[in-house]
Structures are given as structure tokens and as C-alpha cells.
Structure to design on (844 residues):
């Protein structure tokens, strides 16, 4: 077919019911009895979601390939070139997460591939679904896309989940082979573009009344495990002034993180998990472990924030006679996205009459993995209701989802056909 | 035998190695690979500890009786009277607790019974070991002694542990019958005295350089489950000022409890457990649950403290857009102990040249159950090193343990023989 913009967009509009149905189908895979969807990295539930998407891709005439760690690629057949354009996202969720995070990008990309399978493309179009984007299970994010871009340190395979299962063993239990990491690396020089479509997961687009965002940069997290050691003691027999209460020091840490980050514009800091191993209603806590996540688009500001947090909290912990230790468990670097791709995405929004906002991404995404190795990378967001994500209450309007998909379709077509693009 | 004080005390001194060995034997039952002893209420480990003490008692010529909920009574045979003097304590521990808490009282009482089995007593001497004194498992303390004194509300049997096991089912799984609570109630009017010997679990005796304390009153806890509800959100994409972070509100609660209690002399307040169900390093916490324990010897001061805590923390939670709910899960009332028994214990210390301190107990004990129903009740403490308890580092010197045992022996003899005591 010739690419008739109006015709193609009409086809996509007809695919709206497909998008809705596939989102609902995926939401049933890992539905959590306590609410939301729990589909952790390298879990049975994640496997089922991959199986589902693979079947849909095959039914759309795409060629399914799995790499040795379970990333899924669905290729348009019959490409005249080895040059690639990859569009995709992930399928795993946080515990009790939402049904739009990751899935929107994979599902819309599939519909776009189906439509473009009727077009003459100059480059090979590949739909990608990456494993383990969320860090909930192994405290490591972007697992699949880091491997696909040759960036996963093999030591990371030793990381354990809360039950002591190692990442490498989880990969094996899904039927894959963590010893073949190298074979999972994509031919990076041949990738002309990586595009990812994702829900915003924040409140900015809603505040501006915009359905779609074109992402300019991706903030990235640095993460720490912080341990507090005081003295276990009897909660009745120990006077307040003789206590070494590790939870009091940890609580002060939580409030300090909030106070420091609240007065900085571009950095956010979160204590998302805190545990008292052996905690009991009748004991003064002697040990507390918590996890800190600090993000920003500007690396030096992020570093200044982290330094300030630890300087201040160490002094405070000492004032409670509690010792504090911290260990960096993950560090990702913020990335500016490709100006050339940003221009393509803006043009695609204009052509399809989609209102958009240029904005940074506070959340990290698989796009970060591609941008870091120099692949021209771009992202589109669609509005998240109330800015809520990683929650059963996560929601994006179907009309907003389709608006972003229209821009993604046109941008993908341009990137796979434009002769002047290199 | 006639009661020759010096002879009897010499016999007890010879029993020192018994005391040491039995403490070590019990410390092996439920030894926790992570350190300390974990012997929870109505666990297999608690059962084994009871079996051990029962065998020792029988080998000492005592008559073993178990009530329908597993409390163990070891009676001196051949008593001429139905009037009872009970001495004892408990055998369960907190998770990773110490090897002296509870066990010191039961083990020393057994040695005393063995010695007094040679004496002519006017009243029946019974050694008691109560079930489930610690609240760690079911968030209810003094389970066995509350039942034995007819004070356990049958609704309490529905309380669940962290795995969802109900107290009544745990009792059943140990081979006992929670439907026969009434048969477990002791003939309270016949109990002439209840004496309990226990480690201090606090730092006061060490600070005063005293091996032994004679307890004047028992502080008692009121306990609350406190829930914070905010909004789960993505830790990267949610600006600080738009968060409803339940952990921030909970952290402020922890610090507020400390600040309020630190400026009150006689009240202590502890958050001993805190959980973020579904917490994850990449989520702003939307739900937090914590447990508050407030204790004092003066009821009205304790109540004022609790009121102040909740008034202040509710306002603070609102300032974080987090709602706070609290539920009273347990309330015990502080008790002054029997003046008459205190006099006996002081006299016993004097006769045996044991230095003692008159002091309140910050911790609650099975003695509280007896005092509440009007049984003349007394307690002795021995020094805890560093005031540390409910910890693998809990320690009491054998010499201090024996000092208290001497006083207990003499007081028990006086209470079981004195004709003028009624």
C-alpha cells in the first residue's frame, strides 16, 4: 500500500478495541487478590504475559524470536535491510502494580506493526518486549534491556530476591540460560532508532491538560541499602534515655530524605521499603534495613543531594547511639534523549494533531539502556490519571493511549522509510 | 528435716551447677541460627521446653499436672492442706530472645522445690510454668497466666499470628483444648501467695550495683495497631509536593512517640514493629502498619501520654495528606504488689545477706495476672547485664541468679510454713 496518512490513522482507530481487550487480557495475568497486578521479573506470571504477546505477534504475521534471557522480539518479515528500528517496552509489574505500566507500549507497538506490515519499509521493524524492567524483585531495574544492550554486569546475576532466589536461577527456572548473556546482545550499530511508548506515571501531563508527552531526558536512580544498628531491648524495662532504637534513627532518616528533596526542584528521594528483621511489639528495635532511591535528570545535583542526605543522617543516627551503614546497590546515569528523534516525534504529533508537551521523565525506562549505548532513542508518554502509578489505581484513558499511538505510528513509519534519516 | 538456714543455703549453693546446666539445656531448645533463642508461644519449641521441665520436675519427685491449655504445674507431694503457694514463671521467648528471660524463674523454683521437699510445709507448694507470656506471636501477652487466673476473654482465642494461624488452633496443634478454658482456672481463693523470680530486663539494678530487686509495682502496657493510608505512587515520576507518603507519616509518628515519652519520667513508649505491605524500592509507600506499646506504673499518666501521642500524630499525618487509624489491641492495668509479700521478700533478703533494691517493674510479667485477681503477689529481680533483654546478648551472672534464688528459697519457706501468715 501507499502510505495514506488518513487511511492508516483510520485503521489504527479501528484497532482501539484490540488495544482495550489486550490490556484487559494482560491485567488478568498476575491479578493480585489484594488488588492490582503482580507480575514480577522472571516469575511464572511474567512468562505467561510473554507467551500471550508472542501468540498475538504470530497471529499478526510477525516472526517471534526469544533471546537467551527471555527478551521477545517480533519482526516484520521480508525486510530489504539489516538496519533496525525497534519499538517496545516491558511486561513485568511491581507488586500490586497497575495494568498500563509497560503494557501500553508493547500492545500499541504490536498494532502499529500489524498496520505497517502492509507498507513498504526501508528498514527492519522489530517490536520488543523486555524482561524485568521493574526493580521490585531483585532490586535491579532494566534487567532485560541492559542485557540486550550489553550492559549487565554478570555479577548482577547473583542478586537475590527476598526469598533468597538468585537472578540467574530465576532466569533458568523460566527456561532460559544466563550463561549465554553475550548472545543476547543486539547488533547495536545496526539499530537506527529505539522508540518507547509508556504511561507518564506522574501528574505533569494531567496538570497541563495534555494527552501526550515527548520525552527530552530520562532521570535515573541511584539506590542504596541503608542499615541501622542499635540495641535490641525490652520495651517495658528500658528507660527512653538508655535506648539505642534503630527504628527511631531510621524514622529520622525517612523525614530527612523528604525534607532535603522537598527543597530541590529536580531531584526526588524515596524510602520505598523498610524492614525490622525480628521486630516485635515488645522489643525496642535493634536492627532496621531500608532502601533509598534518589533520582534526577542532572547528575551533579543528584550527587549533591545524596551527599547531603548521608552527612546529615549519619550525625542524627549517632545522636541516637545508632550506627548507620549504607551500600550503593545500583546506579544509573541520567540521559538526554536524541534531538533528532525528538524532532521526529514532535513532527509526528503535529501531523496527527496530537497536543504534546516536551518534558523530562522522572521514571527510568528501557529507553535509558538504549540511549546509554548511543542508540538514537526517543520516548512518548501518555497521561496518567492523578499521576498515579505502581498502584492498582493506575489509569490512562483509552483516547489518550490512542493519541500517543497515532504519533508513534507516524514516527515509526518515518523512521523506517525516510531515506534522509541515518 | 528441721529448717536449718545455713544448711539449706549450702544445699542451694551446691545446686548452682544444676541451674547453669538447665539454663544451657533450655537455650538449645529453639536456638535461632540468626542468634539467640526463638521459642514462641504454642510453638513446637515451647512444647519441647515444657517437656524438658516436666521431666526434671518428675525426677525431683514432683507431681506433674498440665491444664487444658498447656500450663504446667509441678506439686510437692504429701501436702496436709489445700492452701497453695505458687512460684514460677514462663518458658517462651521473643524472636531471637535471650536465654534467661522466664527460664531463670522456673529453673530456680524447681531447685527450691527439690530442697523444700525435705522440709515440713503447712501449705502446698506448686511450681508453675505458664504458656505464652510474650506477645510476639499473637500480639497478646500473659496468655497462660491470664487463662489460669480466669481473665482471658475467649474472643482473644481468635487472635492470629503473622501467618494467619489463630491462637485457638495453635493451642490445639500442641495437643491441648482451647474449648476447656474454664477447667484451666486455678482455685484462686486457695492461693496464699504467688511469687515470681525473673531477670530485670532493664538497666536499673546494674546502675545501683545491686544483684537483686524486690518489685513494688508492675507497669503494664496498652497497645495499639496504627495504620497509615496515603497513595502508592511511582518513586521517580511523582514530585515530592504531590506525594501522600504513608511511611513519612509513620516515621513522624515514631519520632513523636519518642519525643513525648522522653520528657515523662514514668512512661515509656515503643514502636517495636512496622511493616509496609507491598513496599518496594521503586514505590512511594501508600500503606504502613505499625505497633505501639506504651507502659507506666501510673494509669492516668499513661492515658495522658497516649492521648497526647494520638492528638499530635493525627494532625501531623493530615499535614502529609495521609489518614491515620488506630485500634487498641491490648490493655493491661498497672498493679501495686502485695505489701505483705514485699515485707516477706525484704526479710528473706536480709536473712540471706542479699543486697536488694525496692523498684517498680517496667516489664509486665505473669505476676501481673495473679495480682489483678487479688492473689497476694510478689516478685524478685536479678540484675541484667547492660540492661539488655529480648536480645541474644541478654545476660545475667550466675552469682546474681543464685543470690535471688536464696531470697526466693527463704521467702517460699516462710510463706509455706508461717502459721501467722494468712
Amino acid at each position: 500500500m501507499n502510505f495514506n496518512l488518513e487511511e492508516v490513522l483510520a485503521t489504527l482507530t479501528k484497532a482501539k478495541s484490540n488495544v482495550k481487550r489486550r490490556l484487559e487480557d494482560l491485567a488478568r495475568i498476575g491479578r493480585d487478590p489484594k488488588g492490582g497486578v503482580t507480575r514480577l521479573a522472571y516469575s511464572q506470571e511474567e512468562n505467561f504475559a510473554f507467551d500471550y504477546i508472542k501468540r498475538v505477534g504470530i497471529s499478526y504475521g510477525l516472526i517471534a524470536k526469544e533471546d537467551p534471557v527471555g527478551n521477545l522480539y517480533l519482526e516484520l518479515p521480508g525486510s530489504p535491510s539489516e538496519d533496525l528500528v525497534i519499538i517496545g517496552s516491558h511486561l513485568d509489574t511491581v507488586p500490586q502494580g497497575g495494568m498500563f505500566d509497560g503494557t501500553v507500549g508493547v500492545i500499541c507497538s504490536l498494532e502499529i506493526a500489524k498496520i505497517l506490515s502492509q507498507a513498504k519499509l526501508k528498514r527492519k521493524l522489530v517490536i520488543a518486549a523486555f524482561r524485568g524492567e521493574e526493580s521490585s524483585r531483585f532490586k535491579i531495574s532494566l534487567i532485560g534491556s541492559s542485557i540486550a544492550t550489553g550492559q549487565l554486569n554478570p555479577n548482577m546475576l547473583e542478586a537475590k530476591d527476598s526469598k533468597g532466589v538468585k537472578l540467574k536461577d530465576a532466569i533458568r527456572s523460566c527456561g532460559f540460560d544466563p550463561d549465554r548473556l553475550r548472545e543476547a546482545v543486539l547488533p547495536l550499530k545496526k539499530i537506527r532508532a529505539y522508540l518507547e511508548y509508556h504511561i507518564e506515571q506522574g501528574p505533569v501531563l494531567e496538570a497541563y491538560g495534555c494527552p501526550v508527552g515527548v520525552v527530552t531526558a530520562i532521570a535515573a536512580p541511584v539506590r542504596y541499602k541503608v542499615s541501622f544498628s542499635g540495641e535490641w531491648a525490652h520495651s517495658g524495662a528500658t528507660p527512653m534515655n538508655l535506648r539505642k532504637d534503630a527504628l527511631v534513627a531510621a524514622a529520622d532518616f525517612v523525614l530527612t530524605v523528604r525534607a532535603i528533596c522537598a527543597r530541590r526542584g529536580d531531584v526526588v528521594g524515596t524510602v520505598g521499603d523498610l524492614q525490622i528483621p525480628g521486630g516485635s511489639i515488645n522489643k525496642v528495635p535493634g536492627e532496621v534495613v531500608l532502601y533509598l532511591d534518589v533520582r534526577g535528570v542532572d547528575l551533579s545535583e543528584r550527587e549533591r543531594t545524596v551527599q547531603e542526605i548521608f552527612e546529615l543522617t549519619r550525625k542524627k543516627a549517632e545522636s541516637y547511639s545508632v550506627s548507620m551503614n549504607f551500600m550503593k546497590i545500583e546506579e544509573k546515569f541520567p540521559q538526554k534523549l536524541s534531538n533528532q528523534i525528538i524532532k521526529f516525534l514532535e513532527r509526528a504529533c503535529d501531523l496527527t494533531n496530537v497536543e504534546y508537551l516536551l518534558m523530562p521523565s522522572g521514571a527510568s525506562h528501557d529507553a535509558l539502556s538504549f540511549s546509554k549505548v548511543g542508540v538514537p532513542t526517543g520516548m512518548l508518554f501518555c497521561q496518567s490519571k492523578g499521576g498515579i502509578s505502581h498502584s492498582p489505581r493506575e489509569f490512562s484513558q483509552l483516547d489518550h493511549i490512542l493519541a500517543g499511538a497515532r504519533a508513534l505510528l507516524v514516527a515509526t513509519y518515518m523512521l523506517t522509510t525516510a531515506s534522509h534519516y541515518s
User: Anything to note?
Assistant: The first helix of chain B runs from residue 5 to 14. Chain B touches chain A through 73 residues (CB under 8 Å). The radius of gyration of chain B is 23 Å.
